[in-house]
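In this notebook, the sequence line spells out the residues, with the fold written below as integer tokens. This is how one looks.
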Amino acid sequence: MPSSWTPGQAAHLVLDLDATLLARDRRTLATATRDLPRVAYSHLPLSAEPLLAIPDVIAWSWARGGEWRRRVESLVTDVAYL
């Protein structure tokens, strides 16, 4: 969860459905929200929630570089190099 998140800001968290990551997502959410009120969430395919594609588009553009990176630069607030 973002460090700036506070209860009451969102009614429902929607995550991209990736069957290989379901167990990890559940563990991560349980740990991240342990001291918060219950957080409702669901995993949905991109076809059910098109807004889930936006982070992928931004990440692809950033990685592509050049003109693509320039177009999304104002949307990126932090970069973590792994």
